[in-house]
Amino acid sequence: MDRPEEVSEAVISASPGQQVTPSQPQKATKKKSRAGGALREIIETLVLTAVIFLGVRVLVQNYKVEGYSMEPTLDDGQYLLINKVGMHFHHMDRGDIIVFQYPLDPSKSFVKRVVALPGDTVEIRDQQTIVDGKVVKEPYLRSPENGFYQRTVVPPGEFFVLGDNRNNSSDSRAWGMLPQKDVIGMAWVSYWPPPRWGVVREYRYPELT
After folding, report:
1. Which residue of the set 13, 32, 69, 181 is catalytic?
2. 181 catalytic per annotation
3. How far apart are CA 121 and CA 155, in angstroms?
């Protein structure tokens, strides 16, 4: 009986000194495979970049201070990073500096300091800010404030906000309380100009604790 024929996977062989050239379809397949791998890497890089960018935008946002309402704490033209995610883990407190949509024109963003919280009673008289019947010390003010604001209780879900440059600021004294839904985030880091680099520090009112 004849022996079965042995079939080898190496179907191409060469005698010594003879060069074997792969067929044209194999070359095309390898080139196509390399091109497909490079395209896949480019797509993966673009997707990863987009995910990182969107993730950063969810967490923080840059903001340019325009105007003089927060001097001397913040200057006109100063650039800030706004902490947006912190709003979900940290309740706003008196003294926090926040960025928000201007309630009378949501296309504009303002930056002010939180002075009174929901349930607080606030009034301004005799160049003093009074919260819950106590005069609050405000060492960050450029000059004593002029004007009068009648005694008012801050409604639930709203805040009383003021500019540090008290006599050159459009704030809750002019347009009312700030709804929480309009808050974008808390001022976190100043990154421009270089002399102003650093964490934006809030101020707490010890007399109200």
Report:
1. 69
2. no
3. 10
Count Cβ atoms below 10 Å from residue 21 Cβ, excluding itself.
Answer: 9
Scanning the structure block, which residue is given the tokens 């928000």?
100
Would you state the structure tokens that stand for residue 43, as one six-digit string?
Answer: 């797509």
- pLDDT number for residue 91: 82
Q: What are phi and psi of 39, to 5 degrees?
A: -65, -40
pLDDT tens per residue across span 146-202: 889 999 999 999 999 999 999 999 999 999 999 999 999 999 999 999 999 999 988
Residue 45, number of CB atoms within 10 A of its CB: 10
Assess whether 69 carries a catalytic annotation. Answer: yes
| CA distance linking residue 203 with residue 70, whole number of Å | 14
Asked whether the beta carbons of 82 and 187 are under 8 A apart, the reply is yes
CATH numbers and ranges of domains, the chain: 61-203 (2.10.109.10)
Give me 180's structure tokens: 């929480």
Render pLDDT for 9-60 as a digit per residue (tens, 0 to 9).
333 344 445 554 555 555 555 555 666 677 777 776 766 555 444 545 556 8
| Tokens at 189, concatenated | 């880091």
Return the number of other C-beta atoms located less than 10 Å from residue 58's C-beta: 10
Q: Identify the active-site residue in 31, 64, 109, 112.
A: 112
Residues forming beta bridges with residue 209, ordered by sequence position: none
